[in-house]
Structures are given as C-alpha cells and as structure tokens.
Amino acid sequence: MFAHLPLTSLRTFESAARLSSFKEAADDLSVTPTAVSHQIRSLEHWLGVPLFERLPRQVRLTAAGERLFHSLHSALLDVAQSVDTLRPKPDNAQLTVSTTAAFAALWLVPRLGHFYAQHPGINLRLDTQCEVVDLQQDASIDVAIRYSLDGYLNLHGLCLFDERFAVYGAPQQVALARHERPTLISVHWRNSTLYADGWQAWCAQAGENWFDEQSLVRSYDEEQYALQAAIAGQGLVLASNILVSQSVASGLLQAYRPEIQVGGAGYSALCVPGRERHPPVRAFLHWLQHQALHAGHPPLARS
C-alpha cells in the first residue's frame, strides 16, 4: 500500500519546509545540502509540481508545497508520537511552552505549582522570547499561549478566556483618586496596538479628564513592571483583569470604579494539529482548561 511512497524524499522535504532552508535541513538530517537538493528535486519530479521557489539565499514554499507540508508534518508527528509510546520512558517528560513574559510572570508561573503537583513527571520549560514563534516551522515548541483578536488557521486551539481592561491601584491610591488627579501608569507594547488607546477609552467612558496635557503618565514596556509600580503606590494602572487577578486576590491592588471596563482580546493555547494527543501536551491543555474554568472564564475548544 505504501511501497511506492518516496519516504526519504518526504522526510527531507518536511525538514527543509519546516526550517525554510536546504542547508539547515542538511544539518538537521546529517547529510549534505547537495543531498537535500537532490531529494527535493526527485520528489518534485515524482509529484509533477514545484514545491519550493528558489530565491537568492533562501527558499520559499509554493502553494503545493504549503499543502503538502501541513499534512506531512502532522502525519510524521503522529508517527513519531506513536513510536515514542513504545520506547522506555525517561524519568521526566519534556514540555516547552511559548508565551509572553507578562503572561508567564503574572498568570502562569504563580499557578504552575498545581500543575507540578498533578504531573510530577513532566518538566515544563517556558520560552518567553518577544518574537512570535511559527509553530509549523519550530518543532521545539509544544504549546504556544497567544494573545490576539484574530483566529489561528491550521492550528489546534483552546480558547482560554477573553479579557477586559480596568483601572487598578494600591488601596491608598484608589482612595486618593476619589479626591484628586492621580498619576497614571501606562504600558507601551512593542508589538501591538491593542493597548494604545486604552486609557483614552477608559477616561471617555468614566467621564474623567485625566488623560490630557496636564496628566503625569509613567510608561513601562512590560505589564509586570507597570503592575509592580502600581503595587508600590506610584499611581493607577490600566490593566488586564487576567494579568491582575493574583494581585487583586492578595489585596495588593483593587479596582477603581470597577464598573468601567474596556474590551481587550483573548488568550488561546495553540499547538500543531496532532500534538494535542501527545501525553504531556494533553495533560497541560487539560490543566489550562481547568484553571480557566476555575477563574470563571469558560474555555471553548476549537480546531
């Protein structure tokens, strides 16, 4: 049934497509770049369609190549996971999760003790680099937790929760703000416009004229720094109800005029289709779902 399939060429193609490079695929497979190029040309001849555009110093998938890569990567991942189930298990399974530094510090890490208690055999590594990871290209990432208004095509996703922005401060700053203009704490997001007009929108809803030329605004690049400034009593911060939840629960921060809220985006846990069946990934997604439900934000699964 499968005797006619050029398995070596298909495996070579998957590596070159995932890494967007014949040279890196050669390193990945421990062969020469010439051997990779030969296998790709052989596969293209067998299929009768080009799979890559050869550009100066790089290669790019054609539409046919994209279609083959998505199905082939998922199929090979299933085979690899099936083979892994037959091998003797090491003491600890590895799980790599990509997310933002703010979500890791303010929401995920404070709760990970519960995950480790339930799954002591799983070693979880956090990847909090600023660049967005392409899960189809980077096989080292098992799960990505993303924040966006958009959906994610070609990925298995679990919607964790939607967020709202409100104004928070240390209790003494909240009390003071009822009588005088407060110092405002803002966040400058390098890779998003979602926060840009948040303070103005909140002030417009609240009927406050805080955000004008006379306002004192302190800006930070990361949400965790802005929240620490608010906890230290340096002013009021416009913050996500998700990221501020631990500080509110501990009494370090409280909402100012909590009825005034500004809409945000949503958090989703994502992986390459098929990887959700891998035991460590399945355990982590199930735990995330429980945490989201416990936080009062019902998740919706989607593919």
Automatic annotation (TrEMBL):
<dbReference type="Pfam" id="PF00126">
    <property type="entry name" value="HTH_1"/>
</dbReference>
<dbReference type="Pfam" id="PF03466">
    <property type="entry name" value="LysR_substrate"/>
</dbReference>
<dbReference type="InterPro" id="IPR036390">
    <property type="entry name" value="WH_DNA-bd_sf"/>
</dbReference>
<keyword id="KW-0804">Transcription</keyword>
<dbReference type="InterPro" id="IPR058163">
    <property type="entry name" value="LysR-type_TF_proteobact-type"/>
</dbReference>
<feature type="domain" description="HTH lysR-type">
    <location>
        <begin position="5"/>
        <end position="62"/>
    </location>
</feature>
<dbReference type="InterPro" id="IPR005119">
    <property type="entry name" value="LysR_subst-bd"/>
</dbReference>
<dbReference type="InterPro" id="IPR036388">
    <property type="entry name" value="WH-like_DNA-bd_sf"/>
</dbReference>
<keyword id="KW-0238">DNA-binding</keyword>
<dbReference type="InterPro" id="IPR000847">
    <property type="entry name" value="LysR_HTH_N"/>
</dbReference>
<protein>
    <submittedName>
        <fullName>LysR family transcriptional regulator</fullName>
    </submittedName>
</protein>
<comment type="similarity">
    <text>Belongs to the LysR transcriptional regulatory family.</text>
</comment>
<keyword id="KW-0805">Transcription regulation</keyword>
